[in-house]
Fold this sequence. Notes:
- The structure is a single chain.
- The chain has helices spanning 7-22, 36-43, 69-79, 119-133, 146-154, 160-168, 173-183, 191-198, 215-229, 236-246, 252-263, 270-285, 332-338, 353-361; strands spanning 26-27, 33-35, 53-56, 60-64, 84-93, 105-114, 140-145, 249-251, 294-296, 310-315, 326-330, 346-351.
- It is of the alpha+beta class.
- The strands form 3 sheets. The chain has a 7-stranded mixed sheet with strand order 1-5-6-12-11-10-7. It has a 3-stranded antiparallel sheet with strand order 2-4-3.
- Among the domains are: 7-139 and 316-361, 2-Layer Sandwich (BirA Bifunctional Protein, domain 2); 190-231.
- The chain is globular and about 65 Å long.
Amino acid sequence: xxxxxxxxxxxxxxxxxxxxxxxxxxxxDADVLQPADTLLDLYGEDIRARTFTTQDPLRGEQMLxxxxxxxxxxxxxxxxxxxxxxxxxxxxxxKQEAHETRPTEFVQVGFEVFDGKDVAAADAExxxxxxxxxxxxxxxxxxxxxxxxRAAVIGLKTxxxxxxxxxxHLWRPRRFRAxxxxxxxxxxxxxxxxxxxxxxxxxxxxxxxxGLRSESEIALRIEALQDDxxxxxxxxxxxxxxxxxxxxxxxxxxxxxxxxxxxxxxxSISAAIDGLNMRLDAMAKRGIDVDALPFEAAxxxxxxxxxxxxxxxxxxxxxxxIPPVATGGRYDALTVILGGGTGVPAxxxxxxxxxxxxxxxxx
Length: 363
């Protein structure tokens, strides 16, 4: 046991895990060192800014696990059978370039549910389980649904290439906004790109290729840019619908009504809204006061990269400046990627006992 994590934190973690075991979860674990290529394939080079890496002569580049979900999903997709419920407990490791006071290693306790019989019921089960664990802690919930935003992007009347670019940057709001403005002709394309597009013989005027891309790759890129330039802009009407969607922040029933209004003009989100409605019904059956439950359409966009549906968190008063003590959500698409094209419905979450202790101490 590391000296920098107190006995109280480990004791709390074990108590939380015992609750999860009581909910039918099997105890599992994951190696501290994880292959870097898996995480890089999922998140790109951005992941290096948040993880500690090392080089192994035989295994190649390795990363100290930034969380448990990815390796647990890999294990389940290779060896598991549905339905399955898992719990784990251990340290994860994150670089903290912007927050010097935050720890670079801390304890997580997790709960993962692989069960496709009733997706709404599984979402409600995970949320209600964490709500019960935190019932006596002064924190408040927030919920959202990345699936609604994904459905909105899929429904845009534009090219598949543009939809894919926007989807890749859902987790980077500023980049997403910049792309949407460019695809809507609100902002001009960069000067260097414009120069390439305006020159029919661009390849002939390029210097000798010295970089990592071949001439054929550069030619394909120029062709893709030219094809994109020929596509009409995303309409201001659709951009306004997206803006209205992202501004939805209400109690769950009121948010549902606002989203249904938006769906009249953006029907691609209708199925995801129906899913939200079923989830709220399932939560109500588990004793959650859904009439007072907050919902924010943009919630989770900056911190929950592999979630693609329901998302949630439990946070203390903002004045305390303490990160959410528990977060979670649905990650069906991740199981498809890690399952080699075959996926299963999956939802889970984690709780940080160190943050719970900070919130309680601040009372």
